[in-house]
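Teaching note: in complex prediction, the entire set of molecules is handled at once rather than each chain in isolation. The prompt given to students was simply: 'Predict the structure of this complex.' The entities are:
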Amino acid sequence: MKMITCIAPINMAVIKYWGKRDEELILPINDSISASLSTDVMCAKTTIVTSALLKENKFWLNGQEQSFDSPRLTNCLRAIKKRADEKLPHLHWNISICSENNFPTAAGLASSAAGYACLVYALAQLYNIEGEISNIARQGSGSACRSIYGGWVRWHKGNSPVGEDSLAKQIVPADHWPEMRLLVLVVNDTKKKYSSAKGMAITTLTSSLIKYRANEIVPRRIEAMEQAILNKNFQSFAELTMKDSNSMHACCLDSFPPIAYMNEVSHSIIQLVHLYNDYKKELTVAYTVDAGPNTCIYLLESEVEDFLSIVNFVFPNNVDDNEYYRGLKLPSIRPLDESIVKDLNLSANKEGLLKYIIYTKVGEGPRVLDDSKEHLLQDDGLPKHF
Ligand code: DP6
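The expected output is the structure of the full assembly:
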């Protein structure tokens, strides 16, 4: 019997992956860049058990048993096993997988990226696989390949039709830009959206803008973003981040039928960011939005207090502070200066437009948890907690 438990980070893209050139192998039409976020705040956790006694393969996700036959899971497992030593006895035993996110999936954050990165990383440990595994994680969910590394990561789209060169590489580790922080503004919204897989398929098929984005805009922007990160140039970083988020959502709207992930609250946060940057006479905060209405703010630690006091004024909440503010310890939250309210002509919205705020930072990649108390499965391959 063998058992392994690992955790892996979620990531937040600043140059977005949107569009595939191969649906089955999950090969993208452009490079993308993201930061992996601290696993102390949000992570996926996966335990895998393998034993000669297991009668069948099993998979639980967030407490629910799942089919073991999904093509994405099957592809990852096949690709991992192909890399393992045939002579490993346990390579041919059945496995039980149990995976959990330590943050609500309702947060609409890219949980599949962390989930597949964690699964593939854990499988690689189980079967003693060394070397590149990001191109295997990619086959579970495209953005998962970036969660295989910590810090700032670039996914190179690659040119091979079979995808062996479509993999992630770390640009710099997490401690390269230690002041960088993120505020995830989780928007209250229950409307069902297209999944990112479905959305990007519609865009790739129907939008003419996406071709211009993938062939002209992103190749230039990605180099500029890498430089901005290497030089810790927040002005350039912020401008590229916001423009790239806008470009992805413009391609979504250019799809047929049009796809709108952002809602009115996301748009008003974006307006607020521009207003605030104009007031500060430089770019001090940057927004970016994925395939949902939640709006993520990249900013330096020194800006958090000021920006949060504005967000709290414009989006008042009626929730207990311990529920509302999650993640890292925030600086004291103070009321907004009357003069700023006047200068910016701010007005407060009705209460409750934001569900909660997660405060986090750039963090490390996946790792093994050695303490047996961390395991999610028992020796018999069944979950500890149902
Ligand atoms: C908007 O990686 O979830 O978050 O490859 O189909 O699983 P699949 O899609 P997924 O798409 C993520 C899209 C995005 C942008 C990004 O993370 O780069």
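Point out the following to students. The longest strand covers residues 44-51. The two ends are 22 Å apart (CA to CA).
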